[in-house]
């Protein structure tokens, strides 16, 4: 298959793959060969390098330990049918991390350096990138932490930007079955708080809520808007998409929702590639019963279908049911994943060829 719109040059890059059971990988951490590290000191970032030591040694009083100064990103690299290694919109992760850093009084790691670092660390770990057809991918986790000692409450002066990579299995083994979500009594974000950035602290405070939901037999939490508790926000790590009975894609808008790159890509795909009407607006909880389909979107699973939302015993069951993804969401899923896999041409710059 020749796809010259994406492969600018052909390279021979047969590399010895690691001897892993690719088809049966879980979603967990595994130590790989290289990680990227850059340190910030005296007001500037150093040149950065690939290193082999997976451990971080820091002073006991480092800012990250005392006041949780940390933010992160998540994206994936994977092998296409032609044997190229690609990733999806890393520039968007770079930009979002710049926003996170600014809100947390951390230094910004420049976009071009971020994308270059992703490229370097994936290339160095090419042997860990799962082969095409395994359903697995290389999860890429960029993050930044405050590293010098801080005891009085203030931002650190020194920081470390790192990227670790680890091979992960398909998020859903044996296909995506619709999940059941509970309306949480906890909030994940405050009005004018940090819900819109990818800060570790947002996850620390959501752990109790998700453990509680799991104990009660639910897969995820639906968080309402913290100010009025009448509008739909998101789950702990994925944005919502809904389909109305007349086929419009609706996705919630709020200043305390984390702007998912998957969700923003879905909006483009639905409108430009599938000719759907797309609405990005406030969504009231009372509207949910009128939607035909519901899904969660994020890098990990792309789209997970939602079959049921439970609000203190009251069930909202979507007409798409508990057996399979609804038909409109399936269409979006198929189109977006085809673009990600470079089977069809997506908007310019979405698929970044690493090697
Ligand atoms: C990372 C994240 C998402 C998903 O974002 P993607 O860019 O699509 O992976 C959604 N919600 C929260 C709270 C997140 O942290």
UniProtKB/TrEMBL annotation:
<dbReference type="Pfam" id="PF01063">
    <property type="entry name" value="Aminotran_4"/>
</dbReference>
<comment type="pathway">
    <text>Amino-acid biosynthesis; L-isoleucine biosynthesis; L-isoleucine from 2-oxobutanoate: step 4/4.</text>
</comment>
<dbReference type="InterPro" id="IPR005786">
    <property type="entry name" value="B_amino_transII"/>
</dbReference>
<dbReference type="InterPro" id="IPR036038">
    <property type="entry name" value="Aminotransferase-like"/>
</dbReference>
<dbReference type="GO" id="GO:0009099">
    <property type="term" value="P:L-valine biosynthetic process"/>
</dbReference>
<feature type="modified residue" description="N6-(pyridoxal phosphate)lysine">
    <location>
        <position position="198"/>
    </location>
</feature>
<comment type="pathway">
    <text>Amino-acid biosynthesis; L-leucine biosynthesis; L-leucine from 3-methyl-2-oxobutanoate: step 4/4.</text>
</comment>
<keyword id="KW-0808">Transferase</keyword>
<dbReference type="InterPro" id="IPR033939">
    <property type="entry name" value="BCAT_family"/>
</dbReference>
<dbReference type="InterPro" id="IPR043132">
    <property type="entry name" value="BCAT-like_C"/>
</dbReference>
<keyword id="KW-0663">Pyridoxal phosphate</keyword>
<dbReference type="InterPro" id="IPR043131">
    <property type="entry name" value="BCAT-like_N"/>
</dbReference>
<dbReference type="GO" id="GO:0004084">
    <property type="term" value="F:branched-chain-amino-acid transaminase activity"/>
</dbReference>
<dbReference type="GO" id="GO:0009097">
    <property type="term" value="P:isoleucine biosynthetic process"/>
</dbReference>
<keyword id="KW-0032">Aminotransferase</keyword>
<comment type="similarity">
    <text>Belongs to the class-IV pyridoxal-phosphate-dependent aminotransferase family.</text>
</comment>
<dbReference type="GO" id="GO:0009098">
    <property type="term" value="P:L-leucine biosynthetic process"/>
</dbReference>
<dbReference type="InterPro" id="IPR001544">
    <property type="entry name" value="Aminotrans_IV"/>
</dbReference>
<protein>
    <recommendedName>
        <fullName>branched-chain-amino-acid transaminase</fullName>
        <ecNumber>2.6.1.42</ecNumber>
    </recommendedName>
</protein>
